[in-house]
Amino acid sequence: MSTGPFATADASGYLSRMLRGEAARAPVLDLLDSRLQGVDAAAGTLTSTYQAGADFLNPAGQVQGGMLSAMLDDLTASLVDATLGAGQGVATLNLNVSFLRPAMAGQLTGEARLLRRGREVCHVMGTLLQDGKEIATAVTVCKIMLVPAR
User: Which sign does the torsion angle of CA 26, 111, 103, 99 carry?
Assistant: First the structure.
């Protein structure tokens, strides 16, 4: 287990290796400007920030719901990833999003909490906040999979 603000379950897991620069960062993380702020795999919590740029906005000037959903998918799957070891990966089976208020261009903060971790399936809750107000929530079901070595 790694310690500090990025306490993952296994130092050989993908998230730990990515944080050390030993594994490639997924391109979608750059698109969303995802920045991991802290993770505690044992406590089942993760915090990340995202930057919603002008290209994320709909004609009404609000962040398009699909972009918020992508942020929540990244947020919740990253928490599951923090609990995994080498040779394991995560796939989202179900992402149920509720939009609570419009988000504007700018920074959003994501908070994820592990509700239940089974051997193969995990349930995670994620929340996006902007200026301290809840923007959207998601309940996500993720599957733990074996990933072939690359």
Answer: positive
Q: Tell me the sheet residues that pair with 63.
A: 57
Residues 6 or more apart from 15 whose CB is under 8 A from it? 8, 39, 78, 81, 82, 84
pLDDT (tens digit, 9 = 90+) per residue, 84-114? 988 999 999 999 999 999 999 999 999 999 9
Domains of the chain (ranges; CATH) run 6-146 (3.10.129.10)
Residue 75: is it exposed, middle or buried by C-beta count within 10 angstroms (0-12/13-18/19+)?
Answer: buried
Interatomic CA distance for residues 45 and 74, integer angstroms:
14
